[in-house]
């Protein structure tokens, strides 16, 4: 009896591919199943682009308010400083005026004393007035305003004011011949220049 070669079992020889664990299982009824996306669902979620501008605007508004508050406080501090400086300056002026007036009180006292004794000795009033004048000059010098009434010195436009020019053969040209009104002070602390006549140049 002839024997035919048996064909190998194809099912047994083909390799079996592994099936993923959940790929072949039917979906469970107790779990929610994903459905098709509904229209407009993406617009319901606030994204970074929607929240970003609003947050930045709030930050800018807060920063501006802080800067305005600092500006107002700086203006208030500056105004208070200006008022305090004005009060201190006025106080210093009052103290200086008081000090100057107090320095001249002895001058007035001596002037009144000279006038009181003028009737008893008319000639003494001249000496008394001269003494009062010297005392007033001394007070001005102590305050920083020395007297200038020198003659025979060279004309100085910073200290002298020419009120006349005279011909004087005994005086060198350009020198002070006569002081008509004394000057007080020097440089930036000058109260007034001396009014003088100057010798004419040939």
Order of helices and strands: HHHHEEEEE
Strand order of the largest sheet: 2-5-3
The total count of strands amounts to: 5
The number of helical elements comes to 4
Mean pLDDT: 79
Distance between the termini: 176 Å
Largest sheet: 3 strands, mixed
Q: Detail the poorly predicted runs.
A: 1-24
Q: Structural class, judged by helices and strands?
A: mainly alpha
Radius of gyration over alpha carbons? 55 Å
**Helix content estimate:** 40-55%
Q: What is the overall silhouette? A: elongated
Strand content: 5-15%
Short description:
This protein has helices spanning 10-13, 41-44, 48-116, 124-142, and strands at 147-148, 160-166, 176-181, 183-184, 194-199. The chain is mainly alpha-helical and 202 residues long.
Structure in words:
This protein has 202 residues and is mostly helical. Helices cover 48% and strands 11% of the residues. The protein contains four helices and five strands, in the order H-H-H-H-E-E-E-E-E. The protein has helices spanning 10-13, 41-44, 48-116, 124-142; strands spanning 147-148, 160-166, 176-181, 183-184, 194-199. The protein has a three-stranded mixed sheet, with no helix packed on it. Strands 1-4 form a two-stranded antiparallel sheet. The chain is elongated. The protein starts with 9 loop residues before the first helix and ends with a strand. Mean pLDDT is 79; it is low at 1-24.
List the helices and strands and how they pair.
Layout: H1 10-13, H2 41-44, H3 48-116, H4 124-142, E1 147-148, E2 160-166, E3 176-181, E4 183-184, E5 194-199
Parallel strand pairs: 2-5
Antiparallel strand pairs: 1-4, 3-5
Helix pairs in contact: 3-4
């Amino acid at each position: 009896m002839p024997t035919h070669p048996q064909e190998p079992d194809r099912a047994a020889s083909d390799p079996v591919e592994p099936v993923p664990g959940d790929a072949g299982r039917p979906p469970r009824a107790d779990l929610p199943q994903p459905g098709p996306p509904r229209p407009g669902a993406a617009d319901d979620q606030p994204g970074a682009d929607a929240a970003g501008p609003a947050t930045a605007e709030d930050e800018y508004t807060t920063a501006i308010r802080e800067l305005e508050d600092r500006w107002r406080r700086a203006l208030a501090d500056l105004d208070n400083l200006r008022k305090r400086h004005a009060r201190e300056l006025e106080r210093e002026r009052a103290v200086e005026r008081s000090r100057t007036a107090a320095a001249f009180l002895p001058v007035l006292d001596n002037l009144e004393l000279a006038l009181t004794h003028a009737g008893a000795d008319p000639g003494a009033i001249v000496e008394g007035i001269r003494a009062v004048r010297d005392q007033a000059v001394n007070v001005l010098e102590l305050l920083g305003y020395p007297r200038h009434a020198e003659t025979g010195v060279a004309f100085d436009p910073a200290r002298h004011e020419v009120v006349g020019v005279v011909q004087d053969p005994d005086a060198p040209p350009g020198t002070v011949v006569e002081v008509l009104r004394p000057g007080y002070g020097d440089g930036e602390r000058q109260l007034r220049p001396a009014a003088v006549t100057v010798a004419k140049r040939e």
